[in-house]
Structure formats: C-alpha cells, structure tokens
Design a protein that fits this description.
Blueprint: H1 6-16, H2 31-50, H3 54-61, H4 65-72, H5 81-91
Helix pairs in contact: 2-5, 3-4
C-alpha cells in the first residue's frame, strides 16, 4: 500500500477545506457539559451503528437536519441536557451517563 497520488491529496484537501470540525471538550469542563458531550457522542455512534445519514436521523427524531449537524459537531452550548435526552427517548436509545 503506497501513498495517494498528488492529485488525490489535492482533491481531498479541497473537499476538507471548508468543513467545520467537531468541537472538543476542555479537560476542565463542568459536569453538565461533559454529560451533554457524551449525549452528542451517543448520537454520532447511533448514526454509525444504524448506517444512516444525519438527514435520516433528523427524520426519525422529528427535527430539522441542521439540529442533527449541530449535535454531531458537539455544539453543546446550543442544547440543554433535557432536550438531548428527549431526542434520545424518541429513538428508544438506552443511555447511561456517569458524572465523573
């Protein structure tokens, strides 16, 4: 297995140039932020496990696809924990969170 060609690398860089990255959580984040972050992570895992798109997840929950994009980008400041739990309950997801 070799390195990708210069053309492939250039194309990939162009595709990724304007993509907004997911947010990370600071080490000293308060417990509530850690819980919301874990909830967002659970939705990202659900998408992978179910092999569905963000649009399909939005349809299943009954929200606009832009809300799902905010969740999978870990924009925890845009959500309350109870709203994330509500979304999870609409999917019948078992969620077990520990505050550490």
């Amino acid at each position: 297995m070799g390195f990708p060609s210069k053309d492939k690398v250039k194309k990939m860089r162009e595709l990724l140039e304007n993509v907004e990255p997911s947010r990370t959580l600071p080490k000293n984040a308060p417990p509530l932020d850690r819980l919301k972050y874990k909830m967002c992570e659970r939705f990202s895992l659900y998408i992978l496990e179910e092999k569905i798109s963000q649009v399909e997840l939005a349809r299943r929950i009954g929200v606009d696809p832009s809300r799902i994009n905010e969740i999978v980008k870990y924009k925890i400041d845009l959500f309350t924990l109870d709203k994330l739990v509500d979304y999870a309950s609409r999917l019948d997801i078992d969620v077990h969170l520990d505050v550490a």
